[in-house]
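Q: I'm teaching a short session on how sequence maps to structure, and I want students to see two examples side by side rather than one. Could you give me a first protein with its sequence written out and its structure tokens following it? Keep the formatting plain so it prints cleanly on a handout.
A: Of course. Example one:
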Amino acid sequence: MLLLIGIDDTDSRAGGCTTYVAYKLVKNLKNDFNLLPRNYPHLVRLNPNIPYKTKGNGAVKIEYEVSEMKKEDIIQKAIEIVKENSYMDYEGTDPAIAFSFNEVNEELYNFYLKALTTPVTEELAIDLAKKNGIKIINLKESSKKGIVGALAALGAVFLEDYTYELLIYRVKENFGKKRRVDPESVKEMDVATYPFTFNNYDYGRKRVLITPHGPDPVLAGIRGEDPKILLRAFNYLRIEEQIEGWMLFITNQGTDAHFTYFQSKNLEESLKPFNVISISGKVSSTPIVLPGGHVKFKIETNNKNIEVICFKESGELNDVVRKLKREDEVVVLGGTREVDSKICINLEKLEVLKLVEVKKIRAPVCPNCNVRCKKKGKRQGYECEKCGFKCKEPEVVIEKRELSPGIYLPDPASMRHLTKPLQRYRIQKHEKKFLLVEGWLK
């Protein structure tokens, strides 16, 4: 029989990682029951704008075919492993597990899409679970936030685009210590596997991106298009510490899934806090650089002016926003938040559709003396001070813009997990092959 396991909210800002919990679960079920998943565990990124997320708002789904006789033993083992590896004692950590015994239906899939793009209530999750016979285990009675992500993970089916991530885990005694991965080997890996891996190294900031900086169990994560390429990329790394093991995940990271499935009902409905949003319109105010380097401007759409903020940390995207002019046609993609009782958009991605012509008016050049004429006065035209040449009309010059139509993203170090890197726009969608390759789990 089928057993789908969804897990969420096992980590805290003091440590932990839901993918590591999944790794421990897969390893233990393999050892204790000789059981392997029927495909790659799913790393499911959800709405990145939710304020109470710990880090990347990621949940996990693991799919098994199990015997009816062993079902309850496996469920109890799963609960035990999740509880053992969750940061139970930390405020804000609310680990939850969801068990489903059926294939994903349309209602569950739509719940995933909702959790990908909007805030979702615990009550809605509980009602959906009851209706679909899904067993929910909330490991802490104080809060039930984790059940939303656990249930959304169950509903995640990557119908269109998807990527993979190979996650490498540290031994416990190294948690919280400096990660020892040779940066030069990361650059070598990046060059050798381009364009089939992405966001490995930020060359502008000279920063390794595959290693996180917190006290969690992840040593490194390599993201890319194909499991075999990720395993080959792993071999380039010079790792100078002991590792516990690794596991490959299939994921919606780097796919723009949150923007792809954004449902534009009406503008008022979309302009509520913590939504994913994508709107097109015209720039209606000159960009203003704020103290600290953030930039804000307004976009007009449906006769409404909406403020957009681009953070300094966005790097190149911040530079691009500074070059926008009023009447430029753009698509703004990001997340909504409330500032001073007004909704604004935190910019995650910008598409410049059409640039307005910027005209510069200046005094004409005298054809006799090759010098600029002087303006005589209001409606009196221009006159050359040398030879007396007169001209009524000024010279109109079209200013060259330092910007071109196209898609603009933050620097790799500031890019959200779900955001699609530019190099992936050039890669054709690959076939739906989810066969477990040799070496996917160690």
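Q: Perfect. Now a second example for contrast.
A: Example two:
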Amino acid sequence: MREPITIQGYEKLKRELEHLKVVERPAVIEAIAEARSHGDLSENAEYDAAKDRQGHIEGRIREIETKIATADIIDVTTLSGDRVTFGATVTLLDMDTEKKVTYQIVGVAEADLNANRISVRSPMARALIGKSAGDDVTLVAPGGTREYEIQAVTFH
């Protein structure tokens, strides 16, 4: 199944994969060799830690390679329109607090709430998809129901 991802998200995954393969993997192989040189592996905490780290690195490499292989790369700068779709940057007004918040709808692999990038599969994104500026959106969340008004929909 193809997964949508922005060009920026795709490039970030490629950079992480390169770093893991070129920097992290050789470093952990070296750490394992160093720990082996200390003798008895049955009581060697350094060896165990290095092997655990190697497992983590190899798992992350496989995960990123799968994400890259299934990526449907979308250039958000070529998108336009007044409806919320993948790649849209949406400015919302919280009807209760009168505070504005802006989110970009991105692929699962690049979602980062701290950077206001929400997954296209998130409840918030699903509630916004297909809506336009001026529309009201009700989001039922664990913390309760929230009401938003869509202030703007842009692509950049």
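Q: What should students look for in example two?
A: Point them to this: The first helix runs from residue 7 to 36. Also worth mentioning: The domain at 3-74 is CATH 1.10.287.180 (Helix Hairpins).
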